[in-house]
Structures
1.
Amino acid sequence: MADRAPVAGDGAGGTAVSDRPGALALILFTAYLAAYSGFVIVAAFFTFSGGEANGGLAARSVDGVPLGVIAGLGLIVGAFALALIYAAFGPRASTEHGSAAGGQPAAREPRA
């Protein structure tokens, strides 16, 4: 077999993120899952009692806006922030994964 350039994850070296391209995505997903799970648990078990909204996410916080609205918007902003983190630090498909021909684009055949 011909020599080939090292590919991320084949034991030829590199950083931890390039060795496991899904590691950063898994960490960010876990962080969002924890935040969202907390939101759902508070909404399900600590907001209503006896059919009445009496605390948790129904509590008024800023200018009479319920905490649930602020927390929900926080989840949306947090998801956007995690997407920006992944875009900045995640693996680059065009530079790390390349094509099967050693990362070089396929040559175009001349037209007849």
2.
Amino acid sequence: MATLIAVYGSEGCVGRCDARCYEAQDRRCDCICGGRNHGAGLQRALASTVELVQQRRELWERMRLMGGERLVIEPELPLEGVGLHEGDG
């Protein structure tokens, strides 16, 4: 099960977007993607995750709402040139 984005807080992993989301059949999504990847399949979810990372503000806000302090992003995503630190871009 590929995890696309994981959110970590002081207590460990507090949320993630993985196959439970992008392969989902139901409508409810409460993970870090905010529904972008829900039921989309892996390939569409990978592309959507790149877009989400490029729109950093939305991602940082979701992370904080989940009680997270840091993100771990799937290392296979094509993110060259994308600043991932808060305040970049």
3.
Amino acid sequence: MITCILFTLAILVLHQYDRVLIEKPFVHLLAWLGTFSYSLYLSHTIILPFIEQINKRLGFAGATYWISFMIQVVLSIAIARLFYLLFERPFMSSPPPKTERDAEVAAIVSPAP
């Protein structure tokens, strides 16, 4: 319960900085990852065991495990993005806007509930 209250307070306090934060490259990276996060969720549990076996055969363990971890992250993101483009996105109701102007027009024409 206390976590919920603290999180709510953090959102209320940080809301005033939305316009500043949205311009940060890190936020753009998070938004990009967010577009295919469901594909990442679906694919990572299948991909990671295979990558782990390959890394073990290559000898990435102990002090070099960070190399294995980075390979897992990069490949998981790459495969999830490919999965999103090939399978998830074609079945979405409408394609994402191509430009910022298209996004603004779409928001005006069909506002979110």
4.
Amino acid sequence: MIRRLVADGVPQRQVARDLGIGRSTVERALASDRPPKYERAAVPTSFEPFVPLVRMLFVMAILGFILMVQMGRVGMRPMTDSAQ
């Protein structure tokens, strides 16, 4: 948008004023060959303390599933209440 306004003949100061940004921001935008890239610093979440536990539970669930599949391949079936 900045490039288009300046190409249409709007002075850089006016572009800055109209868009509510600084003149140096307009200058940087015109000097750059690509749009600005917003980068946000990573901030730990409230879930962060639980990540190791969730990973462990996930691995246990996967291992349990693999064990169940392997047991099924050799003919073993899980016990049910009616089989006892």
